[in-house]
Amino acid sequence: MRSHARTFVEAALLLRLDGRAGAPRLLGYGAEQPMLLLESLLGCNFLFLLQDAAAPLSLHLQVVKRVVQHLREMHAIGIVHNDVAIPNVVVHVDADYQLRDVRLVEFTVACPSGDSLALDVEPGAFPCVAPDVARGGASTPAADVYSLGALLRELSQAQEAARLATQEDPQARPDLGALEELLSHAVAWQKNKEKRRKGKKAKRHRGQEGAAASREDSGRQAR
User: Which of 36, 46, 128, 185 could form a disulfide with 85 if both were Cys (CB 3.0 to 4.6 A apart)?
Assistant: First the structure.
């Protein structure tokens, strides 16, 4: 069960964000029971999109790029999320898999930048929490970079970005601006790959239709 103190911190952070940086708006707070009432979000858990075989891989990268943009805005406000895991990302796409919106949820371990969560657990106990935070260190933007890198490791693309982001030393991790640039290149490359594959498929389909028409003409002539 969440504590009153932790719920108060989470409520204060959500009020500060007020719907910015992809965060849900806080609608209510339990004075007697530690609970929060948040706005309803359109879309589905990112995990469901990753499990959808029809979703293009470039869409996965676009989602992560949008998460990076939200984190940059969040850090500018002075807040660190600390747990950018796949289940904590809500994605809204239309029927044609066009990305409409990306939101971040679960601010249960978020805190002001520079604060410590006072954890004392083995790094890896919480896969998306940076080892420096797990050991009780300060929550900094570099912690969210690590968290994002752990998320990227679950994808089949942008593995170099994932490797760089999950380095043990926080100072060695790239900043979010550099990660966004890497992801922009990855999105463009993946989209071109999908476009070429689609073109080849369409060409093959036209060839098959032409061959079928030719056989049909030959059959008529034989009769």
Answer: 128
Q: Which CATH superfamily is domain 42-203 in?
A: Transferase(Phosphotransferase) domain 1 (1.10.510.10)
Q: Which tens digits make up the pLDDT trace of 40-49?
A: 999 999 999 9
Q: Cβ-count burial of 177 within 10 angstroms (0-12 exposed, 13-18 middle, 19+ buried)?
A: exposed
| Residue ranges of domains in the chain | 42-203
The pLDDT of residue 122: 85
* Predicted local distance difference test score (pLDDT) of residue 127: 87
Structure tokens at 39: 């706005």
d(CA 19, CA 103): 9
Backbone φ and ψ for 72, nearest 5 degrees, come out as: -60, -40
**Mean pLDDT of the chain, nearest integer:** 90
* pTM (two decimals): 0.86
Residue 187: partners with Cβ closer than 8 Å, 6 or more residues away: 58, 61, 62, 65
Phi and psi at 195, nearest 5°, equal -65, -45
**Selection from 167, 162, 105, 159 nearest residue 131 by Cα:** 167
